[in-house]
Amino acid sequence: MNRATLEVRPDEPIGTISPRLYGWFAEHLGRSCYGGLWVGRDCQDIPHTGGFRNDILEALRALPVPMIRWPGGCYADHYHWQDGIGPSAERPRRLGMSCDLQVEDDNGLGTHEFMHLCSMLGAEPYLAGNVGTGSPQELCDWLEYCNRRQRTTLTERRISNGASEPFDVRLWGVGNETWGCGGNYDPVIYAHEYRRYATMLRHVDRKAELVMVGHDADWNTRVLETLADHPYLVDHLAIHPYFFRGGAELGFSVDDYYALLAEACEIEDYISRTAAIIDSVFDGRRHIGIAVDEWGVWHPEVRDFGPGASQGRRPVTYEQASTMRDALTSALVLAAFHRQCNRVSLANQAHIANMLQAPVMTDGSRMWCTPNYHVMRLHTPHIGATALPIQPVSGDSLPDGRPAVSATASGSAKGMAITVVNAHFDRPAQVLVNGVNDHRTASAEIVAAESAEAMNTVDDPNHVQAKMLEVHQDGMDRWYVELPPHSVATLVFA
Ligand code: AHR
Questions:
Q1: Is 348 a pocket residue for ligand 1 (Cβ < 6 Å)?
Q2: What pLDDT is attached to residue 378?
Q3: Do 101 and 133 fall within a single domain?
Q4: Which structural domain range is residue 441 located in?
Q5: Distance 73 CA to ligand 1 centre (A)
């Protein structure tokens, strides 16, 4: 048994954990939207509300889901928003294109439907604009259609399509991965394009927050330096960290297990390096947030690039096994976001349904939640709370030297919440928490399983789920819990 001690410092608040750090990514790709979230208004055999599956809505409401980025991804750079408004029967059928998948796209899920989804879930909409095949005019028109109150031909169309009030969308992406699928731009040329788009978008709605495409250090330095005289045009710089180095989705080795967790933890350095570039280029003249637009585990079976991809399943569906190990990476990443909550301005896990690190999966009329769903839900008390420093002060280490037990803490009017990860592959831990002695009551929930590759399936949907965990006192007014290996628990102190 690893005897670990954590120390929380409630008097040194880090910052607010914005609900925007708990966003999701919904792309018209594979079965994420069409055939996942969206079954269409005419669907007879799956209960739905306005075309969105009721079982998914119910699960997502309990998560919660404060923000959704839509409609892509790579898809966004082919998407023409006017295809997705007006009577469904009159919408054009297009070739839906993203990430080497080409599908028939009837545009049934368009702007109004997406806004309906957001309002049903209480989520903030984040729209990704088309720079690949679009134009500044097209994106300005979408912004005007969504946000302006003045009576114009575009806003009259919005009203006649059923929305008398503006949607008031704050977040607008100016392209997606323009260094790759979004046009293979040279960074300086993209920065010039961005400057043109952003200037014109600002004319339409000054309150729109604009997200510029970021990437690695070289790209970020060059796009930002090109905009050095126009810092006010950038609100957020996007990065897309995916985790590739965990070997197979199932049947992975102990080394693979630790490699994936270590890669997830590297996100913190990536954020710091990106922040340092922003600061060095703009020298404090503007606070630009880091938008972790897409993030998550992406196993080799469902990609045709990166480590191990040659062993992959074909055709690529982006649908992968989602195990306890994958869910642990989420807890480690969220802890990093909390520590960096003054720099990370938003984040969306990929994807919202069926693909990559989805919280919910479907098979015909059946739906189940992944271990990731349960781990993400355990983090609910942190949303909107104040991040607090918490440090391991004793206990075992992992092979890469990181502590086996780590945590994130937050405080709010309701009390303090601490999410603890025991990342050890096979060693349980007794975890003592210093710094919460003032609190009288404690409760906890845990997500754990007999194996790091445990998962839920259509036939065994509740194999991994959250359970109550006992919180003990040690006789000296200190609280402790016992955690099995590869588990995540949230302790709430009131
Ligand atoms: O999530 C799938 C794809 O991954 C997205 O379309 C793209 O932005 C990223 O490369």
A1: no
A2: 98
A3: yes
A4: 2-8+388-493
A5: 5
